Amino acid sequence: MAPVSSNPTTAIKLNDIGALAAFVREKPDMITFRTILDAYWSLGTENPFKADAYTTVLHDLELYPNMPSIPVPEFLNNRGTAPTETFATIFGNELFDWVTASLSEVRHDMDTEIAQENLFLIASMLSASAMKTGACFSSDQVSYIRDGLQMKVSDYIGFFAPEQYEVAAVGALIQVLSAGKRVLELKMIDEGDLRQSLEDIGEVIKCPTGETVLQAARELAQNDFKDSWASQDIWALLDEE
């Protein structure tokens, strides 16, 4: 039987950080990173309720000790040499690209049904877990909260079509439930503006499932955003059965 280190999908499922680290050490390059991230994204798409577990694995991998330095890809090397960078930096950048590209891709061909199969909501869940766990945090991800909730500092009219507003709002609410505490701690969004947007966005949410998610976010606000919802509990809100 092949060693676990040759199968990043199995390693992520088993939370086997050592196996993932060994996989990187066998061939520390961009192809290896993308193989790991492809496995992560496939698992997350199949099981969004496990998003927290999967992204925690990646965050732990970023922090794993004694990882090899990685040659900077040529297209990122503007110094005319062949420098190396820490594993955490290069892998973190790749994860950022993966998360934001996936959100952008599904936004352009967005399913407007509020359901667990909606790829935009799945991508929102994975992005939120990445922010909450510290695996990947960026202003690009936070912008999906601002635009989805149509905050006064956003450009949602140019970002989402009117028929996408409801799904965009629910995706933002998923991110608030999961990562809102961390977003506010890092002062990426003004808390007063977020509270107001949670009241105002009710105008675009029409379906009962969306209302359920909105109510959960409003209750979180009433508790001063002190908690972070687990991905399993968030995903259960989208179960219409």
User: What is the terminal-to-terminal distance?
Assistant: 41 Å
| Structural domains: how many | 1
Order of helices and strands: HHHHEEHHHHHHHH
CATH architecture: Alpha Horseshoe
Largest sheet data: 2 strands, antiparallel
What structural category characterises the helix and strand content? mainly alpha
How confident is the prediction overall: mean pLDDT?
91
β-strand percent reads under 5%
Describe this entry's structure for a reader.
The protein is mainly α. 62% of the residues lie in helices and 2% in strands. The protein has one domain: Serine Threonine Protein Phosphatase 5, Tetratricopeptide repeat. The protein has 12 helices and 2 strands. The chain has a two-stranded antiparallel sheet with strand order 1-2. The termini are far apart.
